[in-house]
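This part of the workshop introduces the protein records we will be handling. Backbone structure tokens are a discrete shorthand for how the chain folds in space. Once this layout is familiar, the rest of the handout is easier to follow. The record below serves as our worked example for the rest of this section.
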Amino acid sequence: MTTVIAAGGEINAGDTAWMLVATALVLLMTPALGLFYAGLVRSKNTLNTFMMCVGAIAVAAVTWALVGYSLAFDGDAKIIGGLGHAFLGDVGFAPRDGTTIPHLLFFAFQGTFCIITTALVSGAVVERMRFGPFLIFAALWSVLVYAVLAHWAFGGGWLQAQGTLDFAGGVPVEMGSGFSALAAALVVGARKDYGRQALLPHNAMYVLLGAGLLWFGWFGFNGGSGFTTGESSVLAFTNTLLTPACTLLTWFVLDLARNRQITAIGAATAIIVGCVGITPAGGFISPIWAMVLGVVVAIPCYAVVTWRPRTRVDETLDVLAAHGVAGMTGIVFIGLVANEGWNGVADGLLYGDAGQLGSQLVAAVATPVYAFGMTYVLLRVLGALMPLRGSDHDEAVGMDIIHHGEEAYASGEGAMLIRPETPSDGAARVPERV
């Protein structure tokens, strides 16, 4: 492989080229998520739902550059990193320690993870959370929750030190977003029509297209997490093909057994669940075990997806099931079937190392506790300072018109906007058409 010499060491041109592509693929996942989420909501909230993902790009990219990256990857303190890389200090063209790519590229790749994870949490509160407070929450969450969990798992923190294996983000991305979403749903509260009428996805084609683009981007997400063009990246890349395919087939069977129909929304959800399940395990398990994981991860996630609407928890787009539960399953699965012959790192329980399962279980407990607890506290504090959700009137009109003054569809549910305002003389006001 052609190499060039940079200050501080050797940069591999092939690895760098692949990581440039992988970074772009992961960034693509956030607008793909916006499309996926937008199809799942009612048409009057389409733009606002997509804009929450766009907003996450803006705020998380900035917070990551200013302080988040440093807290995640500077130093090897057990709980949180230092500020040596704040404002991109000492982040330049020399190789990042332990890699053959420029430090600046390593920063950018990791930044795209922070961006999409922040966007994922929005799925719990769409259709009622105000856009401004969400942006403030996203900025704070990206630092106080994501950066901390990333340090624990990847930056020399205590989970990494005690042996937890997490190839591409089961801790900070998947469990971090899933259990934060549950906390957000509880604090913000249910939509006003939740439990009283069917709140159905308005565009299944958006959902399927978004899921397909997410799967496409996931090859960069998982394949890039080896930071080379070598064996670990090839293994993760291949497993990212196999696990979601097996999850999809399993979901078909579960749908047929339950409803005698295979739903498009279910198929799209299955793709995401499979991609999430293999995220922590991609570079640590063999392709055959990756296929088994695809079957295994479908079962608890399907159970939670079908059970949650019967509860009073309006976790709107099932981030807990598709990311939290699936990520936890993948993390624990590593402890069972990791194979040093494939990963060159460690074996799991079935290959003779029970201790690895213990390390994985610690992460599967500690991550949800921190993500849920910190998110809950953060939103309670923000809620004491500002209203987090719109009024009943805002929900009835739709967040597109209320927060953006636009509609996804000219003939959509927000085509007529009625602003019930009362002039100072007490006279009735004629409704306005927008």
Summary: The beta strands are 3-6, 9-12.
